[in-house]
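Entry for the shared binder. Reason: the reviewer on the internal report wants the predicted structure included alongside the sequence.
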Amino acid sequence: MEVSARNSLKGTIKKIHAGAVNSEVTLEIGTGVEVTAIITKESVDHLQLQEGKEAIAVIKASDVIIATE
């Protein structure tokens, strides 16, 4: 897979919470470290995503903002 986005995080699908239109997919990218994405149910089906399968979270953003209290 080749993409122009510079940030990709490989992990294992820990949980898929399916909704009527969108699904919440949680990847465990390290011990105790998770990233969650909201994607269409159609994409979950097309990619044949299931818990335990390896996947890559590709992040494309123009800004990353860091804050403290």
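Summary line for the report: The helical segments are 41-46.
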